[in-house]
């Protein structure tokens, strides 16, 4: 069911410094900051030949990654995102096998304008998994 | 400098259960367990169309992931691995920019039979980065 790894998301305490590390010492192609107020984050994408790294920083009050950065003040890998063909079919399959879907189970429009869901990390070895309809 | 994302490594407390989750609810192509005693881990690869997930479980005494699982008993994302063309050139570039290389800075042969290095997570937003010569 899961397809491509769409991205790895890394929560960072200083977005400009993180971008400079990926552009400089790591020598990757790094984009410009994008504010996504409806998601409570500012993101910078790092383009790799086969996937992307999404650098995440809180934007505004109540950001969904604020708590993570409080617990991990140096930052850390926040989630991984796998593509699926049909987000509703994916949800039903996972729920039918007992996996917990975060929120009310209704896909919402994610940071890339496509329907997404998040799976409870307690059901997947401590890994927060985002599913995005490709 | 960094190229493809070679893999994401997830440390798991129960390798068979983790593999069953990726093969079952997530519907991915999951390999068979491989003991790597010289690395202190047993691994199972999950093949995605564009990269791999490496499920890691401690093998033997003194496994390099034992401490991580003690701190994260449910498991968690342990590291990400980026490919580089020349591991020595990568090391020199990173060290020259002040990044700390783990160990004595000498590339060793990694789990895939290729030279690897690990970068200190304190220099990369709490992310343990492995570099593998492709």
Automatic annotation (TrEMBL), chains A, B:
Any one biological process term the GO annotation gives: L-methylmalonyl-CoA metabolic process
GO molecular function terms listed in the Swiss-Prot or TrEMBL record: metal ion binding; methylmalonyl-CoA epimerase activity
Protein name per Swiss-Prot or TrEMBL: methylmalonyl-CoA epimerase
Short name of any one Pfam family annotated for the protein: Glyoxalase_4
Family in the record: Belongs to the methylmalonyl-CoA epimerase family.
Reactions this protein catalyses: (R)-methylmalonyl-CoA = (S)-methylmalonyl-CoA
Isomerase as UniProt keyword: yes
Class of this enzyme: isomerase
Keyword Zinc carried by entry: no
Domain VOC positions: 4-134
The EC number(s) this enzyme carries: 5.1.99.1
PANTHER family xref list: METHYLMALONYL-COA EPIMERASE, METHYLMALONYL-COA EPIMERASE, MITOCHONDRIAL
TM stretches of this protein: none
Keywords: Cobalt, Isomerase, Metal-binding
């Amino acid at each position: 069911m899961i397809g491509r790894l769409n991205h790895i998301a890394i929560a960072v305490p200083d977005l400009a410094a993180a971008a400079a590390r990926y552009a400089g010492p790591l020598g990757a192609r790094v984009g410009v900051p994008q504010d996504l107020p409806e998601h409570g984050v500012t993101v910078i994408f790092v383009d790799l030949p086969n996937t992307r790294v999404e650098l995440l920083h809180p934007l505004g009050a109540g950001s969904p990654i604020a708590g993570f950065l409080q617990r991990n003040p140096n930052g850390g890998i926040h989630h991984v995102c796998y593509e699926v063909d049909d987000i509703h079919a994916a949800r039903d399959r996972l729920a039918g096998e007992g996996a917990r879907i975060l929120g009310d189970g209704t896909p919402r429009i994610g940071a890339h304008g496509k329907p997404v869901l998040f799976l409870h990390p307690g059901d997947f070895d401590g890994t927060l998994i985002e599913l995005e309809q490709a």
